[in-house]
């Protein structure tokens, strides 16, 4: 089997309080779309996702409390935005969406030769308890999580 696609790491834009990462995945757009929108697929590479028909729910990792999660916008199969109350510096996750201190991450998908380009941009860190610390935590998080997505999709291609 060929080696996995080698992708750039996440970057922080301190002025915009955002984290961004673009990756290429050797998989069709429809498969990548399902991986970022269908809870059972999200749960295979990210956290355990539960969303109701209205796009409201939670995402949970084994070592953390459930984090409130909500679909903010969707333009199938090109873009989906999620809002979550995932402020690492607070210590414990809120049980309800904390609008004032939440961040929004948006996946944008584009068909490219031999696969799909997936870009994630997470914004709103200026509203969190520790903007610089949360930016760095989430930068590292997107590196690890999206690498798992590439491995999952390219390994089962």
What's the layout of helices and strands?
Layout: E1 11-13, E2 18-25, H1 29-37, H2 39-45, E3 48-51, E4 56-60, E5 67-75, E6 79-84, E7 103-112, E8 115-123, H3 131-155
Antiparallel strand pairs: 1-2, 2-8, 3-4, 4-5, 5-6, 6-7, 7-8
Features:
single chain; 157 residues; alpha+beta; Alpha-D-Glucose-1,6-Bisphosphate, Chain A, domain 4; eight-stranded antiparallel β-sheet
Describe the structure.
This protein is 26% helix and 34% strand. It is an alpha+beta fold. The protein has a single domain (11-38, 71-155), classed as Alpha-D-Glucose-1,6-Bisphosphate, Chain A, domain 4, CATH 3.30.530. The longest helix has 25 residues, at 131-155. It is globular and about 40 Å long. The mean pLDDT is 92.
Summary, kept brief:
This protein has 3 helices and 8 strands.
Report the β-strand fraction as a percent range: 25-35%
Question: Would you count the extended β strands for me?
Answer: 8
Number of domains: 1
**Helical/strand content category:** alpha+beta
Low-confidence stretches: none
- Element string (H = helix, E = strand): EEHHEEEEEEH
- In spatial order, strands of the major sheet run 1-2-8-7-6-5-4-3
CATH overall fold name = Alpha-D-Glucose-1,6-Bisphosphate, Chain A, domain 4
CATH level 1 class label: Alpha Beta
Name the CATH architecture. 2-Layer Sandwich
The percent range for helix content is 25-40%
The pLDDT mean sits at 92
Distance between the termini: 11 Å
Major sheet attributes:
8 strands, antiparallel
CATH homology group: START domain
Number of helices: 3
Radius of gyration: 15 Å
Q: Using the alpha-carbon principal axes, give the shape.
A: globular
């Amino acid at each position: 089997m060929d080696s996995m696609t080698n992708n750039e790491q996440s970057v922080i834009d301190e002025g915009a309080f955002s984290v961004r990462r673009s990756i290429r995945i050797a998989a069709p757009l429809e498969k990548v779309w399902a991986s970022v929108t269908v809870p059972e697929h999200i749960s295979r590479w990210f956290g355990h996702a539960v969303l109701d028909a209205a796009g409201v729910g939670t995402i949970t990792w084994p070592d953390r409390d459930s984090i409130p999660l909500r679909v903010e916008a969707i333009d199938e199969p090109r873009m989906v935005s999620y809002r979550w109350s995932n402020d690492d510096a607070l210590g414990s996750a809120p049980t309800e969406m904390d609008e004032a201190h939440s961040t929004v991450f948006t996946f944008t998908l584009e068909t490219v030769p031999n696969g799909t380009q997936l870009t994630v941009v997470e914004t709103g860190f200026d509203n969190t308890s520790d903007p610089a610390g949360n930016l760095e935590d989430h930068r590292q998080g997107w590196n690890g999580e999206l690498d798992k997505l590439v491995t999952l999709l390219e390994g089962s291609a």
